[in-house]
Design brief:
Elements: H1 5-14, E1 25-26, H2 33-48, H3 64-67, H4 74-82, E2 92-97, H5 104-110, H6 115-127, E3 141-147, E4 150-157, E5 162-168, E6 174-180, E7 184-193, H7 198-204, H8 209-219, E8 234-243, E9 249-261, E10 266-272, E11 281-283, E12 303-306, E13 309-312, E14 319-322, E15 325-328, E16 334-336, E17 341-348, E18 354-359, E19 364-374, E20 383-384, E21 389-393, E22 403-410, E23 413-415, H9 432-458
Antiparallel strand pairs: 1-2, 2-3, 3-4, 4-5, 5-6, 7-8, 8-9, 9-10, 10-11, 12-15, 13-14, 15-22, 16-21, 17-18, 17-20, 18-19, 19-21, 19-22, 22-23
Helix pairs in contact: 5-6
The chain binds zinc ion.
Zinc ion is lined by residues 306, 322, 324, 326, 405.
Length: 468
C-alpha cells in the first residue's frame, strides 16, 4: 500500500526470468576413458550440488547434514543407474536452459536426444507429478547425458530446491527421482542509508520484493513513504533466507526485523506470532503491535497540500480553522477507509461535495470530501475494513482542484490527523505469558543483528555485509 506505482512496476520487471540463449555447453571432452568417467561424475555432482538422493521425508533437507547417515556415494549410484559399460562409447553431457515458447521435449531434443527418447524420459516426471509442464518458465535448466546418440540420463533443475533425475534402465524403461537440495536456514541482515527509495536500496543489497513489501506494511501506520522518507534516513532489515551447500542464497522468507532511523521517526519492529492466537504481527521493542487503529494517510502517492489549522480559505477568503488535511492527488486516485467501521454518510454534503463519513470504535470518526465518486457498494450502513476503497479523488463541492480533504474527529471534535496519537493494536504487556515469549524471540533476533552488525560497525558503517 505504501509503494508507488513506479515501484510496483519495478517489482514486476525484476521478477521476470532471464532466458539464457547461449549455445549448449559441452562439458565432457574426449580423452582417456577413466578420466572421462570421473569428469562426468564431477560435472554431475556439480549439477546436483551435493544433494540427498532418493525419497526423503525431510521437506527441504534442513538439518539433515548431521542427523542422517551419509547418502550413498554419488558415483556408485550414477554408475549403477546408468549402467555404463566398457566399450559402449563416451557419454556426452550437454546442458542448456529452456527458451521462451520452447517445450522441455524440444529442449532435450535440441541437446541431442531422439525426440521419442526425450518424450519418454520426460513423461516419467509428468506422470509422477514431479513437474507440471504447463507451469514451466523459461530458464529451467536441463542436463542430457547421451551415449552413442542415445539418451541415457536426464537432469531437470525444476527450481532452486529440486532436481529431477531421470535414468534409463537396462530394460529401456525410465526411472525418475526427485533430488532435493540440502538447504540451511539462516538470517541475512541488510542496512543502508536511503538515497532514492527503500525499495531500490534494499534490492541492491539482495533483499527480495516480499521483504520490501513486508517492511512497507510494518511501517504503513507510522510513516508516509511518499513524504516522510528523506535522503540519509537509514533502514535495517533482517530476513530469513535458505542457502545451499555453497552458501548461495536460494530463497528468502519472512522479514523478522524492520527498522527505520529517520527524520520522521526512529522505530524498529520484530516479527512475532504469539502462541495464544498464532497471528504473526510486527511488534516494537515494548511488545506493542505496529498495526494501528487508523492508517496515517488514507491515500497513496499524494502530496500534502494544506495542513490542519487556521488558514485563509481559498474560496471564501475568510480566515478560519481548516478542520482537515488536504492531499493533492490526481482525479480518480483511490481513497481508503482509514480504519474498520461503519459508513455513516455517503452523499453530497454542501461545500464538501461527494462526502463519506465513517464511524469507528472508541468515538473516532473519519470524513473524506470532494470525491469524484464513491467506492463500490459504499453507502450509509455499510461495514468497511481498513484499506477498503471508499471513493476516488475528485473536485466536487467548494474545491479549487482535485484533492482529498480528510478529517478525523475524536468525540465529535476535529483533530489534526497528522499529529494524532492513535490507539494501537495489541499490547503484549496485557498478556504476560505472551510478553515473555516475545522477549525470548526478540533476544534471538537481537543476537542475530548484533552478530551481523558487528562487522557492520567495524570500518564502514551502514555498508551491507554479504550473506554468511
Ligand atoms: Zn481541506
Amino acid at each position: 500500500m505504501a509503494l508507488s506505482e513506479g515501484e510496483r512496476a519495478m517489482m514486476h520487471d525484476v521478477s521476470t526470468i532471464e532466458t539464457n540463449t547461449a549455445e549448449p555447453s559441452r562439458t565432457v571432452s574426449h580423452g582417456v576413458k577413466s578420466l572421462v568417467v570421473l569428469g562426468l561424475l564431477g560435472s554431475v555432482s556439480a549439477v546436483l550440488g551435493l544433494v540427498t538422493i532418493g525419497p526423503s521425508n525431510d521437506p527441504v533437507g534442513m538439518g539433515a547434514a548431521h542427523a542422517s547417515p551419509a547418502p550413498p556415494p554419488l558415483a556408485t549410484t550414477l554408475l549403477s543407474a546408468t549402467e555404463f559399460e566398457p566399450g559402449l562409447g563416451i557419454p556426452d553431457h550437454l546442458s542448456d536452459t529452456l527458451k521462451s515458447r520452447e517445450t522441455l521435449t524440444e529442449l532435450v531434443t535440441r541437446l541431442g536426444a531422439q525426440p521419442s527418447d526425450a518424450a519418454a524420459a520426460l513423461h516419467t516426471i509428468y506422470e509422477k507429478e514431479l513437474l507440471d509442464p504447463r507451469r514451466l518458465r523459461p530458464g529451467v535448466k536441463a542436463d542430457a547425458f547421451i551415449t552413442n546418440g542415445q539418451l541415457t540420463a536426464l537432469n531437470i533443475k525444476a527450481d532452486a530446491e529440486r532436481n529431477l533425475f531421470i535414468t534409463r534402465s537396462a530394460s529401456g524403461g525410465w526411472t525418475a527421482s526427485e533430488l532435493k537440495a540440502r538447504l540451511s536456514p539462516t538470517y541475512h541482515r541488510v542496512a543502508a542509508p536511503i538515497e532514492t527509495s527503500i525499495y531500490e536500496a534494499a534490492r541492491k543489497l539482495g533483499a527480495g520484493d516480499q521483504q520490501v513489501v513486508d517492511f512497507a506494511s510494518a511501517f504503513a501506520y507510522d510513516v508516509d513513504f511518499q513524504r516522510e522518507i528523506h535522503p540519509g534516513d537509514t533502514f535495517e532489515m533482517v530476513y530469513e533466507t535458505q542457502v545451499d551447500e555453497h552458501g548461495t542464497p536460494v530463497k528468502s522468507g519472512d522479514l523478522v526485523y524492520a527498522k527505520l532511523n529517520g527524520r520522521a521517526l526512529t522505530r524498529g519492529f520484530y516479527r512475532f506470532a504469539p502462541s495464544d492466537d498464532g497471528v504473526p504481527d510486527y511488534f516494537d521493542e515494548n511488545g506493542e503491535s505496529a498495526t494501528k487503529f487508523l492508517m496515517k494517510t488514507p491515500i497513496n502517492g499524494a502530496r500534502l497540500s494544506s495542513s490542519f489549522g487556521n488558514r485563509r480559505h481559498p474560496i471564501s477568503g475568510y480566515t478560519r480553522l481548516h478542520k482537515g488535511t488536504d492531499f493533492a492527488a490526481p482525479s480518480g486516485t483511490p481513497i481508503y477507509a482509514a480504519g474498520n467501521g461503519t459508513v455513516e454518510r455517503a452523499s453530497r454534503y454542501g461545500g464538501y461535495g461527494n462526502y463519506v463519513r465513517i464511524k469507528h470504535a472508541n468515538n473516532y470518526k473519519t470524513a473524506y470530501a470532494h470525491m469524484l465518486r464513491y467506492g463500490p457498494g459504499v453507502r450509509a450502513g455499510k461495514r468497511v475494513r481498513q484499506g477498503d476503497v471508499i471513493g476516488y479523488v475528485g473536485s466536487t463541492g467548494a474545491s479549487t482542484g482535485p484533492h482529498l480533504h480528510y478529517e478525523v474527529y475524536v468525540k465529535g471534535k476535529p483533530v489534526n490527523a497528522m499529529k494524532l496519537k492513535l490507539p494501537t493494536g495489541r499490547k503484549l504487556a496485557e498478556t504476560p505469558d505472551m510478553l515473555a515469549e516475545f522477549e525470548a524471540r526478540k533476544a534471538e533476533i537481537d543476537a542475530i543483528r548484533t552478530a551481523q552488525g558487528a562487522q557492520l560497525m567495524a570500518a564502514t558503517p551502514l555498508v551491507n555485509p554479504r550473506s554468511p
